[in-house]
Design brief:
The chain has a five-stranded mixed sheet, with helices on one face. A two-stranded antiparallel ribbon has the order 4-5. With 131 residues, it is of the alpha+beta class. It starts with a helix and ends with a strand. It has a single domain, classed as 2-Layer Sandwich (Beta Polymerase, domain 2). It has two helices and seven strands, in the order αββαβββββ.
């Protein structure tokens, strides 16, 4: 399976923009494409990227939800910086971290948060907060 050139370019550009913006906030990030990137047919609903802010790991305090919320806020600042830099991407959806409602335990987080951005042309890209 070959990823279309437009999609490769969008992912590579976004990754580069995110790394530059993160450095501007004093962060180092690890960004990976995940999911069915190789096996699913095109077109797709979205492309998934995980973003981990490496230098936050030792700064995160509190329960799992507190950590996810703090990490998400930092990721959101980075993504908004990319959007405001006239990169050509725009935010189309934001999902904040939330608990697994079956347990209502702040140590059991159902979702660490994500932001879906859309390039000028091509498939939307979901940036998933990872700790």
């Amino acid at each position: 399976m070959t990823i279309p050139d437009t999609e490769k370019e969008n992912v590579q550009n976004l990754k580069q923009y995110l790394e530059i913006a993160a450095k501007g906030f004093g962060h180092n990030v690890n960004i990976n494409v995940v999911g069915g990137a190789v096996t699913k047919e095109w077109p797709r609903k979205d492309i998934d990227l995980t973003l981990s802010i490496l230098d936050l790991k030792n700064k995160l305090k509190g329960n799992a939800l507190d950590k996810a919320e703090y990490s998400f806020l930092e990721m959101e600042k980075i993504v908004r910086e990319v959007i405001e830099s006239k990169s050509g991407y725009r935010i189309i959806e934001t999902i904040k971290p939330y608990l697994d409602h079956e347990y209502e335990d702040p140590e059991i987080v159902a979702h660490n948060g994500s932001i879906v951005v859309s390039p000028r042309t091509g498939t939307p890209i979901e940036i998933i907060n990872t700790l």
